[in-house]
Write a structure and sequence with these properties.
This protein has two domains: 140 residues, Rossmann fold (3-Layer(aba) Sandwich), CATH 3.40.50; 198 residues, Dihydrodipicolinate Reductase, domain 2, CATH 3.30.360.10. Helix content is 33%, strand content 26%. The protein has eleven helices and 19 strands. The strands form four sheets. Strands 7, 9, 10, 11, 12, 13, 16, 17 and 19 form a nine-stranded mixed beta sheet that branches. A six-stranded parallel beta sheet has the order 3-2-1-4-5-6, with helices on both faces. Helix 5 runs parallel beside helix 9. It is globular. The protein starts with a strand and ends in a 6-residue tail after the last strand.
Length: 374
């Protein structure tokens, strides 16, 4: 099968190297910026060179939304299947691209956009055909999990020190805002919801990251508890969707409490299957490249004329309803004794903290799971 690529950076070069060793695939062209002309011999500099070539599948590894969307739209419009690891693109334009792929009879796959090598999106897209998915989520960002694990293990005394180390090791980008703010995880939750429930959250979701972890009384090594950043989506009985990202405190011997370093753990719950958890490397060149190759192999297996689209034709954009989802929380203000709340809604807690910060108060909060998992 002849394939082309968009981008040849960290992930792209990983994909390129795997394809070059494969007997099933051959590279036609690789779109790069002119300054990267010597990165691989198949380089081109105009998307139209990809659109007009003989490749059947295009793999996008560039990142960003606007240019990536223009490229995706052109390639799918030309009848090429499209694979991406770009969570921002799918979260923003996934519905449009899925519908275009349906119209053109080609595939649109993005299992590498959530969980790296972990096949959670792939598994959910298969499971939903015979089961009703009730909820999904997990520890979905390796950068934040590395930072939180390092603090708990006493390797660093502050969030900034742990973040700087994550950058040195390549776990964090030069600009880590999307990771530490929780938005990277939220985009993955959006994709999980779209694939699992056929409902893509467009607004109303709640996002809290780990930037204020230095105020948390549980950030250092303790015998019982540990902090994790959790993303979750839930399909409610009334048809509404809950979707949020926030720190959460677990017992260290719990399932999530035992996930350390830059590893991820994703889960989904089926009405028939029950809870399914998947653990593994969530980021990096080779794990993410392996997920893109999994999608490419899926396309190779499809019967000619059929297509594989992860977002169903009936998927719709929805506003999130976080009022019914309730937890106990710990709330810590700078210089004050931590407060433990009664069960309050996700929407209420996120709104309260926003108002406190607007008034000038520094604070950290986390859902507190004394005897339960997410």
């Amino acid at each position: 099968m002849l394939v082309s690529m968009l981008g040849c950076g960290v992930v792209g070069l990983g994909v390129y190297n795997i394809i070059k060793e494969s007997e099933d695939f051959k590279i036609a062209n690789v779109l790069v910026r002119p300054v990267e002309k010597d990165v691989v011999p198949e380089t081109v500099f105009n998307i139209d060179d990809i659109v007009s070539d003989n490749s059947e599948v295009v793999l996008e590894c560039m990142g960003g939304v606007d240019f990536a969307y223009m490229c995706a739209e052109k390639c799918i419009g030309a009848g090429k299947s499209f694979i991406t690891s770009n969570k921002a693109l799918v979260a923003a334009k996934g519905l449009e691209l899925s519908r275009l792929a349906e119209e053109k009879g080609v595939s649109f796959l993005f299992s590498a956009a959530c969980g790296g090598a972990i096949p959670v999106l792939h598994n959910i897209s298969v499971a939903r055909e015979t089961d009703r998915i009730l909820n999904c989520g997990g520890i979905l960002n390796g950068t934040t999990n590395f930072i939180l694990s390092s603090l708990r293990e006493g390797k660093f005394v502050s969030y900034k020190e742990a973040l700087d180390e994550a950058k040195k090791l390549g776990y964090a980008e030069a600009d880590p805002t999307a990771d530490v703010s929780g938005m990277d995880t939220m985009r993955k939750v959006i994709l999980l919801s779209a694939v699992a429930f056929g409902k893509l959250p467009v607004d109303g979701y709640s996002v809290e990251g780990i930037e204020n972890i230095d105020l948390c009384p549980y950030k250092y090594k303790r015998d019982e508890y540990t902090v994790k950043l959790i993303g979750r989506a839930k399909h409610n009985e009334d048809g509404s969707v809950t979707a949020y990202v926030e720190p959460a405190i677990f017992k260290t011997n719990s399932t999530f409490g035992s996930v350390n370093s830059n590893f991820n753990m994703a889960f989904y719950t089926g009405e028939n299957s029950g809870r399914i958890s998947i653990f593994g490397q969530g980021a990096g060149r080779v794990p993410t490249a392996s997920a893109m190759m999994r999608d490419l192999t899926e396309i190779l297996r499809t019967v000619k004329g059929s297509r594989s689209v992860m977002i169903s034709e009936s998927c719709e954009g929805v506003s999130v309803m976080n009022e019914a989802e309730k937890h106990n929380y710990i709330l810590a203000f700078k210089g004050e004794k931590p407060e433990f709340t009664e069960p309050v809604s996700v929407a209420f807690m996120h709104s309260r903290v926003k108002k406190e910060r607007e008034s000038g108060r520094e604070c950290f909060f986390a859902a507190f799971y004394e005897n339960a998992e997410v």
